[in-house]
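Structure representation:
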Amino acid sequence: MKRGRSPRQGEGSYAAAGVDIDAAGRAVELIKRHAASTLRPEVLSDLGLFSALFQLSGRREPVLVSSVDGVGTKLKIACALDRHDTIGIDLVNHCVNDILTSGAEPLFFVDYIAMGKLIPERVESIVGGMARACRAAGCALVGGETAEMPGIYAGGDYDLVGFIVGVVERGGIIAGQSIAAGDTVLGLPSSGLHTNGYSLVRKVFQIESGEGAASLHDPCPELGRSLGEELLEPHRCYFPLLRPALPYIKGMAHITGGGLIDNLPRVLPRGLAARLEAGAWDIPPVFPLIQQRGNIAREEMYRVFNMGVGMALICSPEVVSDLRAKLPEARPIGRVVAGEGEERVIIV
């Protein structure tokens, strides 16, 4: 059906089946200006085509780096609060950080939004957040897909997925091969939970129940703000901060699902482990609050949540001072040690 025509309302129409094509058209018009604000000179296609064109130039040995991810059940918090302007920021920043671990600069981003009922203003709010994050990272939002799927998603529920492509010079790839025992592990602070552990958080605070959902609005003395504000704090992007420091770094771990315990080993060569000192960094108050309310074991906390470290960096001890001069926020939190056993991260 062409945009601009009123849908038929009979029993045999698409609208009667729960899909409003005109609403999809309105959503596209609302989000075009947001996407247009992110475009880089390398983008050769107009918005709204069946595919996007991006000219890769000015590189000697370019290596494309890609990643795809979602924001998990943090979406449930956004829906409970009916606030959707930050969830797109979460999605973009999560993806940017993932390819950053290889030393990559983000080039372009594509999103997928699936809703039970397509609400154009909600789509605009979500994409507006994506565009804001893309502009901050210098990444072009070149397109996406918005699907209305009433048979899959109920009511106001929706899902959100992002796909990112970046580039790094072959000689600048960061892959951790040169990491050795004695190297220093540094941590960059997170802004809170980022986008992981929300299923456990929702259980701890009983957010699915009416009483729990209402508590999202109440002031929380331990946090200095409401629980809802804390839980919707956007996932931090580390690319602008880390870009000038990349030559000093041997390996990076984005601390997402699996926490420090499962993510640090992903960049450690075989035969090595990381020994971390828990008191070496500040743990935001939301984590002790979750642990206390849910009676959660210490090891489980470090396996589920980032515990205040959003990105872990590994470098030679000789360059720690130079690295910290460029990254004042980075704190030494441990070191790389020899370790042949199953325990690849030891937190003392």
User: Anything to note?
Assistant: The radius of gyration is 22 Å. Residues 162 and 183 are 34 Å apart (CA to CA).
